[in-house]
Amino acid sequence: MLFGPVWSRRFGWSLGVNQFPEKLCTYACPYCQLGPGKVTVERVKLCDPQKLVKELKGVKGHYDVITFVPEGEPLLDLRLGECSKAAKEFSGKKTVLLTNASLLYDPEVAKNAYPFDVVSIKVDAGNERTWRRVNAPHEALKFDEVVSGILKFSRTFGGELVTETMVVKGYNDSKDELKEIAEIINEINPKVAFIMVPTRPPTIPVEPGDVELALRVFKEVIGDNVVPITQRSFASYPKDEKDLATIAKVHPVPKKLFSEVPEGCSVVTYMGEEFVRC
Ligand code: SF4
Description:
Blueprint: E1 2-8, E2 12-17, E3 24-25, E4 38-39, H1 49-57, E5 65-68, H2 80-91, E6 94-99, H3 107-110, E7 118-122, H4 128-134, H5 143-156, E8 160-166, H6 175-188, E9 192-196, H7 211-222, E10 226-229, H8 241-248, E11 253-254, E12 266-270, E13 273-277
Parallel strand pairs: 2-5, 3-4, 5-6, 6-7, 7-8, 8-9, 9-10
Antiparallel strand pairs: 1-2, 11-13, 12-13
């Protein structure tokens, strides 16, 4: 269930939790580094708090935060809130949630996000048409409902809120679209608005969008708390190939870090580099 710790420019040394046995998400973003998977809004019990604490007891290396970053949308897990509380109680570390925020409109789901210290919300689109292309949501979801759920959460959450926007060429990187996204982020009022581009193999071929333009437009609307992250660092990755394979379940890892491709994993190429996805 645990992987890492790996270095994160946003959060420091991050111990990852992946409680999902396979990819489950409310979205099917074309840029998703996990590849295709089940698109659903049905929530299931996945994380076992006792098992998580048992695993945490065995962690030797230093870590600053515990990040829930499973194969898919973490709020699909009915036990996410329980697990984050258990992880925090045991370790005393900050807990971080990376969510696409599509289910936050439901108060029962949002209850699972409030116990976190840091919540990072995905905002890739400022209108329904772009949202359907860049996030390919489950048919039961409605853009206006998702946005109002995010805004309600942002006004009531007491921890640190950040946003992340994946800028994808031809999907959401026109000036008008970036402005619409920035206006929603401005209402959310996050501590930092991160701008990202695809740097690992996507599900279908996509290219990085115009980061310079995104940065300019975001700064005009939001102000200076906008940070672009356009490169991944793999320097902190463990040497042990079993540990590397657990990371490759959620983040494709450069093939050059493996002596051989682990069983059950595949090789995918993106922007001239080979990656292992497990
Ligand atoms: S990028 Fe995130 S939100 Fe999009 S399909 Fe992948 S896991 Fe789901």
